[in-house]
Amino acid sequence: MAVEASEYPLQRLAPVQQWSPSIHYAQFQRMATGALPQRRLYDFELLYVSQGEAVTTMYGKRHVIEAGQLIFLPSGVYHQNEVTSFPEAHFLGIHFDFFGELEIQTEADMIVNEAAVAADKFAREAISEAFPPLSSRTIYTPPLSCVQLMERVVEEFTLRPAGYELVCKGLMLDILVQLFRTHSSQALTETSPHDGKLIELMTRIEKAPAEDWSNKRIAAQLMLSPDHTAKLFKRLAGMPPSEFVQSVRHREARRLLRETDLSIEAVGDRIGYPDIHYFSRIFRKLEGITATDYRKLSRIL
To answer: What dotted CATH number matches 195-300?
Structure first.
């Protein structure tokens, strides 16, 4: 029997022990300003914006995705992606299913051909009594640790060393748990009277990471005490102000190392760490490898 489009995504209640995500595609992407055709997927996609801005029209609404955010695109749901920043936007995209139930040979196998719909091919979303469904929220702001896991998925999927399927499965489970936890923590703070100002300030930090974003200045911007600011920040962002600033700067450093030929010193200066030795220590601490090695690896991917 045919399934109405409004009934997607199909879901399956299953204990987490039965979850076995399979990666079908994982790549860094660039797209010029403009809109893509409306489409549906047989699998699921996490589409993370690392630079620029995009809009996805889905469920009859336009969802703005800013740098540092991702959108969850469910199986079987009509959506249209559009880059609104000029001249382009940069993405990290991961296609997957929750139970390893799809056989994907090419990228075309992930996209529904509306002239020949394979109704039995739509993947099912795993749901658990422990968390609300991932599809119950459209836009997520993943923490730095989650973004790093997504980048590792791209690395494993691209290089395909021995055992990469198992590594990707483990990474994907970790990513899903982090998104579920993010969902829960953000839901708790949606009614806070300070949310608007705090989100606006976080956006400013994202756009100008090199500025002086000390705890004192951040508190002054919100006209709150440093202690109160730290509590609000941790509830909304999942981390205190200093860690949020550090995560934004680290993400921008990774982008500059991947996408430009700036010297290591210049990259540090661009993100607010003019002391190359301090920048190098911080980068290695957060990434696990040196900035130079990260750049070399990113040129392979």
So the answer is: 1.10.10.60
- List, for residues 85-124, the tens digit of each pLDDT value: 999 999 999 999 999 999 888 877 899 999 999 999 999 9
The class level of CATH for 5-187 reads: mainly beta
Distance (Å, whole) CA 185 – CA 173? 19
Which residue in the block uniquely carries the two structure tokens 């981390």? 239
Q: Using one digit for the tens of pLDDT, what is the confidence trace for 12-41?
A: 999 889 999 999 999 999 999 999 999 999
DSSP string, 13-30: E--GGG---EEEEEEEEE
Q: What's the pTM value of the predicted model, to 2 decimals?
A: 0.71
Report in angstroms the alpha-carbon separations of 156 from 130, 142, 168, 211: 29, 20, 7, 35
So where are the chain's domains?
5-187, 195-300
Instruction: Give the sign of the dihedral formed by CA 200, CA 202, CA 206, CA 211.
Output: positive
